[in-house]
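Quick one, tokens below:
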């Protein structure tokens, strides 16, 4: 039954990607900025908008609003081998690698959550990530591998793998606090070693001026052409600063309350959801990473309202509504906020049951 459902999901995603075939067949998508970054790595112009635009014209013949290299320098350095390949070959290889790593994640956690491959097969964010040349499917696998290593050891290696989440560090800012709260010192040690290596690569490839240039790029408006499209607190608030501040504080307060009583596994997974909500730059394709906390939390927390809400949150329905624009796009961040609240209720319920026994 699950195999048949997964097959239906794959056909559904294939049809959805067919609607995006122009972006796929031309390569006019976000992969262009990664390919441009790989070409500019070591040039000293990695965060130069003019250099990015010129390189994009040479690569795909066009430029796209908001599509500039916006990752840390180490990632551009690691992607250099792709720059040696023709653009469309590099794009195909990159997409295949992302899909392969994501499929590994689905089957690695299938014993914990048997429905996970089906949910993955119906994941709209996965389809958009692949069509848009994004790397969040692979990042989901990296996060999952680090988690499995933390469960089975060695912790130092787990931390080193976890440091690769710096590829999109803004989505994982709460992870170090989870490690500190639960005193996972060896994981932190591995993360520090991995982070220092990545930082060294960044300075060796781009020199000492890149932090200032990178900060200027992040503080500009060049990377956020559609704030209302973000399925997080920032997208919920748009330009309304009080709502953004109130929403962010609410997420942090709920996360802190969960941290008081939650196990390491539950808090680690919750930090991914909370970090996604707090991220200042996240779009529909980034939501594919939320299948990881789903895979951890559903088996760990026996709370049916949470199971139902989280399953709906990663189903196609909220994402289809997001694509319809305001006010329907509000369903995404509101659903994720609801899931976070239900995690709190679930851990409180578990904690109360343990106290009674």
């Amino acid at each position: 039954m699950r195999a048949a459902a997964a097959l239906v999901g794959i056909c559904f995603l294939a049809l959805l990607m067919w609607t995006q075939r122009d972006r796929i067949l031309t390569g006019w998508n976000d992969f262009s900025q990664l390919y441009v970054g790989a070409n500019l790595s070591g040039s000293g112009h990695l965060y130069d908008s003019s250099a990015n635009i010129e390189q994009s014209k040479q690569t795909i013949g066009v430029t796209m609003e908001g599509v500039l290299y916006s990752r840390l320098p180490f990632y551009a350095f690691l992607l250099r081998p792709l720059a040696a390949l023709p653009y469309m070959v590099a794009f195909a290889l990159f997409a295949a690698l992302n899909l392969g790593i994501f499929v590994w994640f689905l089957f690695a956690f299938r014993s914990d959550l048997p429905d996970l491959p089906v949910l993955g097969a119906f994941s709209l964010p996965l389809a958009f990530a692949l069509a848009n040349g994004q790397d969040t499917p692979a990042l989901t696998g990296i996060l999952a591998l680090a988690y499995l290593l933390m469960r089975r050891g060695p912790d130092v290696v787990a931390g080193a793998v976890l440091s690769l989440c710096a590829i999109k560090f803004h989505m994982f800012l709460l992870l170090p606090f989870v490690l500190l709260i639960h005193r996972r010192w060896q994981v932190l040690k591995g993360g520090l070693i991995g982070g220092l290596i990545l930082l060294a690569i960044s300075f060796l490839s781009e020199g000492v001026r890149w932090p200032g240039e990178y900060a200027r790029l992040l503080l500009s408006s060049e990377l956020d052409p559609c704030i209302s499209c973000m399925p997080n607190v920032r997208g919920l608030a748009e330009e309304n600063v009080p709502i953004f501040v109130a929403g962010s504080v609410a997420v942090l307060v709920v996360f802190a309350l969960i941290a008081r009583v939650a196990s390491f596994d539950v808090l680690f997974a919750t930090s991914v959801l909370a970090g996604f909500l707090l991220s200042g730059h996240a779009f529909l394709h980034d939501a594919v990473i939320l299948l990881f906390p789903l895979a951890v939390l559903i088996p760990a927390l026996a709370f049916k309202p949470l199971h139902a809400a989280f399953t709906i949150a990663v189903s196609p329905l909220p994402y289809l509504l997001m694509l319809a624009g305001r006010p329907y796009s509000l369903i995404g961040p509101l659903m994720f906020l609801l899931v976070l609240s239900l995690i709190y209720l679930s851990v409180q319920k578990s904690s109360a049951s343990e106290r009674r026994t």
